[in-house]
Amino acid sequence: MKDYYKISEISKLYGIGIDSLRYYEKLGVLKPQRDVNSYRIYGLNDMYKLNIIRDLRLLDFSMQQIKEYLDYQSIDNTLELLHEEQMLIQKQLKELQTKEQMIHDRIAVLSAASEIKTGVFKIKKMSERPCLKLKMRITRDEEMDFAIKKLHSKHEKKIHDFGNQLYAASVSVDELKDGAPVVFNSVFLFWIKMKMTLFFPQENIFHFIIVEVIIKAQTE
Fold first, then answer.
1. Whose CA is closest to 190, among 157, 155, 217?
2. DSSP 165
3. Is this structure's pTM higher than 0.85?
4. How far apart are the first and last CA of the chain?
5. Separation between Cα atoms, residue 94 and residue 101, nearest integer Å
6. 4-32 burial string, b = 16+ CB within 10 Å, else e?
7. Residue by residue, what is the 3-state secondary structure of 59-83?
8. d(Cα 136, Cα 148) in Å, to the nearest integer?
9. Per-residue CA distances from 46 to 11, 21, 40, 41 (Å)
10. Which of 69, 100, 97 is nearest to 84 (CA)?
11. What stretches of 114-185 show up as alpha helix (H) in DSSP?
């Protein structure tokens, strides 16, 4: 086994680009020597550090973290670093589980939507439940999309899976009786299941009598 290796040999051996090796040197993580021709040569100590860099990069450690670890390498620092990474992984797992549940719910919503029959009118009476409402006069489909997005933006910090919720729009009964063109005066989001996971002011609790006009639209 040789004591020193050229940068091209190290690059091929570790599968690391030459630019990355130069970057590690710039950070001070690696300190290759120079031969008589001023070419970089990497010794066994550099290879030891590269093994650590490779392993910690697989765990998504930043180069700054790796540098600090190599500068102050000890068992205590190693344990502290690994505990921090363990907590980060646990947080990421929780976020992934939340995303997986949102995807599961979205599949259920789209599957149910695919079974809807068009042109069906229904009257449903629903008990009091939380509702998020945005007053806005809507005359075109494009305005409906904008209104829903505006409602989403207002509450996205509390409700992350807006795509899996049910939306509705309200109309003026008096205008309908007068034969006026259908114009919506608000959009709102409500929960089929009574999940009171959020705090809603009393003015956001409504009693529903819904006339459901089902028009199958693109929901993807």
1. 155
2. S
3. no
4. 60
5. 11
6. bbebeebbeebebeeeebeebbeeebbeb
7. CCCCHHHHHHHHHCCCHHHHHHHHH
8. 10
9. 12, 11, 11, 9
10. 69
11. 141-155, 173-177
Token pair 């409906």 is found at: 144
**Could you give the CA distance from residue 169 to residue 148 in angstroms, rounded to a whole number?**
10
Please give the Cα distance from 61 to 93 (Å, whole number): 17
Report the distance separating Cα 116 and Cα 169, nearest Å. 18
Residue that is written with structure tokens 């620092």 in the block = 77
Alpha-carbon torsion (70, 71, 73, 78), positive or negative:
negative
DSSP conformation class of 182: P
Can you state the percent helix, strand and coil of the chain, rounding each to 5? 50, 20, 30
CA dihedral 14, 17, 21, 26 (to 10 degrees): -160
Q: Scan for tokens 């693109």, then name that residue.
A: 218
Q: Closest Cα partner for 65 from 85, 87, 47?
A: 85
Token pair, residue 169, equals 């729009």
- Per-residue model confidence as pLDDT tens digits over 50-79: 999 988 888 888 898 899 888 888 888 888
Which tokens hold the place of 111?
A: 């599957």
Provide the residue type at 209 as one letter.
I
pLDDT tens digits, 110-144: 787 788 777 777 777 767 666 778 888 888 878 88
Which phi and psi angles does 121 have, rounded to 5°?
-110, 130
Using a 10 angstrom Cβ sphere, with 0-12 exposed, 13-18 middle and 19 or more buried, the burial of residue 61 is: buried
Q: What single-letter amino acid sits at 108?
A: A
